[in-house]
Amino acid sequence: MTGPYDGTGRKVDSLAELARSIEPERDLWPTIEAGLGRVEAAAPAASDANLIPPRRRRARLTWLAAAAMLASVAVGVWIGRSVLPDVGVRAGVGRGGAGALATNPLPGFAAATDATTFDAAYVNDPRYQRERAALLRSLPARLEALPPPARAKVLASLATIRKAKQDLESALGKDPGNALLQELLVDTYQDEMRALTDVREASDAGRGV
Amino acid sequence: MRRACGMAVSLLALCASRMALARDDWTFDKTVAASARGVVDISNVAGSIEVSGWDRQEVSVHAVLGGEVERVDVSSEGGRTLVKVVLPSHTRGHGEAELHVQVPRESEVDVSAVSADIRLSGVLGVERLNAVSGDVTAELGNADVEAKTVSGELRLKGHGSAARLHISSVSGDVRLEHGAGDFEGSTVSGTLGVTLDSAGSIRARSTSGDVRLEAKLARGATVEATSVSGDVNVRASAEDGFSYEASSFSGDISDCFDVKAERAGQYMPGSRLQGTRGAGAGHVRIKTMSGDVQLCDRN
Question: Which of A52, A168, A177, B285 is the least buried, fewest Cβ under 10 Å from its Cβ?
Answer without folding.
Answer: A177
